[in-house]
From TrEMBL, chain A:
Name assigned to this protein: ABC transporter ATP-binding protein
Short name of any one Pfam family annotated for the protein: ABC_tran
Provenance organism: Streptomyces montanisoli
SMART domains in UniProt: AAA
Family: Belongs to the ABC transporter superfamily.
Length: 265, 318
């Protein structure tokens, strides 16, 4: 790595809290709701969840950073905050360019054909019609959907879950991002496709900048990432070379097969 | 294959023993902010200015149109008759309303050309009401999209209104068939339908943006809307003429009748009837009708857009 290390994401004491409606607590009956409205007390059904508690780190161009931690430790929330989709309640996140979450899934519609979903997904990620046209063939080839016949012209609801996941990853990875955030993408698809995805992530890292990867697969983190952040119950427990952090995390999970219930959802 | 780089010493590197229970202290805040400023990093998740916002929305126009068409197509993709339903649904609606209001309740007695009158009313009203309904759920039912991707959130309500407009075009095809079948032949006066529809579309986009913000903040509104819309429908003269109905009842003040006729729900219906139906005369539309048509459209579009934009950064949280 060059001496000049250019930061792409600076997280400065980030706290994220969000409100959950319909959380249990108090009576959920209509009369109690009415009395709440009349007395203007805050709804008991609304609960604040403090998902990320004061996390600071600096990510540099060319890094692939794995985020590990048990379920509900705040990994996905932190990722959304970096993407700017969740505003921190305290602290700041500074970024170079626009970080994008590899989450094109939400834009796709199961009732439409694969073809139309490729176009829709590309446009949803902010590509122009022209750009979508240019990368269309690459996306279809990369996904390997058409290896067993012409599946791309069938509605996505007819795909197997693996095929759907492959197409989604292919669409999402078609764009070059300044900062790419990936949430559990590598656990899908067969071995061959997983190898290809890893390759593509390395490419993206070289071309673009920084890749964040959330995964429960320690192997994927070791193989893809150079650095890892370990979150536990919303706080950053460890930040360092991926191998060291994953080793420590593995020792932690082996010693405590059932860690204390996380405070987050 | 491990990427060929190491990052042993990052400024905030806190390699704490895993058994160490205390959370790491956050890095020196001023240092981090200064580092970010030195490299010109921007704070993530801040609201863009209004001109920036309009610019971003414009660059997403293809997404808006594609999303609208995709939704429209997906709607009937599981039905055996497929896209034929686009035109069958409004026709069936018109038949049901005709049976109830025209035949059973006898509303048609004092209205000439009742079928064209009714069908125009139903179709134009459907555009307004479904824009309101779609707007209310625009953010809340696309929570996944809002949480995963970056785009100007106004794309969603606007796209859904565009979907309603596309649906209206199918309805208008059905409407033309009905008009001709009941002796209303195409004439030059029909051109007036175009500015009327354009103004209505502005109104629909505006109200959909307003409802989108309200519905995102208070999901309960989605439960309330069907009732409000029904009241609004009965007071907008969809199946009858408000004027003629009121004249049959003593004690309704004139200003109430005038207000009902001048509110946007009724104005757009009557303008369309005025454009398309021979026997619907200029005397039946409220005074200054074109000013109202344009005024409601511009007022709601501009007001709704600014109102929606002011909460842009808050959509999709919590």
């Amino acid at each position: 790595m060059a001496d000049e290390r250019i930061p792409t994401v600076v997280a400065d004491g980030v706290h994220v809290t969000y409100k959950v409606h319909g959380a249990k607590g108090g009576k959920g009956s209509a009369t109690s709701a009415l009395s709440r409205i009349v007395s203007r007390r805050p709804a008991v059904g609304v609960r604040e969840v403090h998902a990320v508690k004061g996390v600071s780190f600096v990510a540099y161009r060319g890094e692939a950073i794995g985020l590990i931690g048990s379920n509900g430790s705040g990994k996905s929330t932190l990722l959304r905050a970096v993407a700017g989709l969740q505003v921190p309640s305290a602290g700041h996140i500074h970024t170079a360019g626009q970080p994008s979450l590899l989450g094109v899934n939400a834009a796709l519609m199961n009732d439409l054909t694969g073809e139309r979903n490729v176009v829709l997904g590309g446009l949803a990620m902010g590509m122009s019609r022209r750009e979508v046209k240019d990368v269309y063939d690459d996306i279809v080839d990369f996904s390997g959907i058409n290896e067993k016949g012409d599946f791309i012209s069938l509605p996505m609801r007819t795909y197997s879950s693996g095929m759907g996941a492959r197409l989604r990853f292919s669409i999402a990875a078609a764009k070059n991002h300044d900062v790419l955030l990936i949430d559990e993408a590598l656990s899908t698809g067969d071995a061959r496709f997983q190898a290809r995805s890893k390759e593509r992530i390395n490419e993206l890292r070289k071309e673009a900048g920084t890749v964040f990867l959330v995964s429960h697969s320690n192997r994927a983190i070791r193989e893809t990432c150079g650095r890892a952040l370990w979150l536990e119950a919303g706080t950053l427990r460890m930040d360092g070379p991926a191998d060291e952090v994953v080793d420590a995390y593995e020792r932690f999970t082996a010693a405590k097969p059932k860690p204390k219930p996380a405070a987050t959802k | 294959m491990k990427p060929p780089f190491t990052s042993k010493a990052t400024p905030v590197s806190q390699t704490i023993a895993p058994t160490h229970a205390t959370p790491p202290t956050p890095g020196n805040e001023t240092d981090l902010a200064a580092l970010a400023a030195r490299y010109g990093l921007s704070v993530s998740g801040a609201r863009p200015t209004l001109p920036q916002y309009v610019g971003r929305l414009w660059s997403r126009r293809h997404f808006i149109t594609t999303f609208a068409t995709a939704k429209l197509t997906a709607q009937y993709s599981q039905a055996k008759l497929g896209q034929i339903w686009q035109i069958m649904t409004p026709l069936l609606n018109a038949i049901v309303y005709f049976f109830i209001f025209g035949v059973l309740l006898g509303t048609k007695k004092n209205i000439p050309d009742y079928v064209p009158f009714l069908v125009t009313g139903v179709f134009i009203w459907t555009y307004t009401s479904s824009s309101v309904t779609a707007g209310t759920r625009a953010i809340s039912s696309n929570q996944g999209l809002v949480r995963a991707l970056h785009f100007p959130r106004a794309s969603l309500p606007l796209s859904l209104v565009l979907q309603q407009l596309q649906q209206l075009f199918f309805s208008i095809c059905a409407l033309v068939i009905i008009l001709v079948a009941f002796g209303q032949y195409p004439r030059f006066h029909w051109v007036l339908a175009i500015p009327a529809l354009a103004c209505q579309s502005m109104f629909c986009a505006g109200i959909s943006l307003i409802m989108a913000r309200l519905g995102a903040k208070t999901p309960d509104i989605a439960q309330l809307m069907p009732f409000i819309i029904r009241v609004w429908m009965y007071t907008s003269g969809v199946m009858w003429s408000v004027e003629k109905l009121a004249s049959g009842h003593e004690g309704i003040p004139d200003w109430v009748v005038m207000a009902l006729r001048c509110q946007p729900g009724a104005v757009y219906i009557d303008m369309m009837r005025y454009a398309l139906i021979d026997s619907f005369h200029a005397s039946q539309i409220p005074p200054h009708a074109w000013a109202l048509t344009l005024g409601w459209g511009v007022l709601f579009f501009v007001g709704g857009f600014i109102y929606f934009w002011r909460a842009e950064e808050s959509y999709g949280r919590g």
